[in-house]
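Quick one, T. Sequence first:
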Amino acid sequence: MLQNLATGQYFWNVVYVDSEGNSSPVSETREFYALNGTVEQRTVFPPDGYNIWLPLLTDTRFTWKTNILLNHTIQISTDERFRNIVFEGQSNSSAFSGVNLDVGTYYWRVVAKDSAFEAATQPKVLNIVKGLDAPMLIAPTSVSNAVVRPGIPFTFKWTEVDGAEY
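Structure tokens:
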């Protein structure tokens, strides 16, 4: 029995030696991935449901946490089951940037995979939006002033903008 293997990728094969000392041909080499503890792999940024303005997308840094010592693939799809992957990028770290997509709603995840192991994070929604409309100032108005007095705050007011989070 194998014990105390360090985290990593391992290879094995089998050779049979009979009672007369004759060796069989070496079997096909197989591989497996050993991990001390449980698999930890989760996405960090952007969070689920994040809205990002299209011109800022290529500078957005997608990040994740993992204890899997494999290269990772970031996948972006138009559907939650990843049947229509529109972007894939490889990373040997826990971050990726340089994604370029059109306005729309997408799903993103990170996959660690080799021939003996595969783990994917839960998908998160990413909304890529065009420029938002400017809010309209309600108070103060063009005919009134914002009067600031000690101990009496002035509250600015403006119209809500569809798609704005703050």
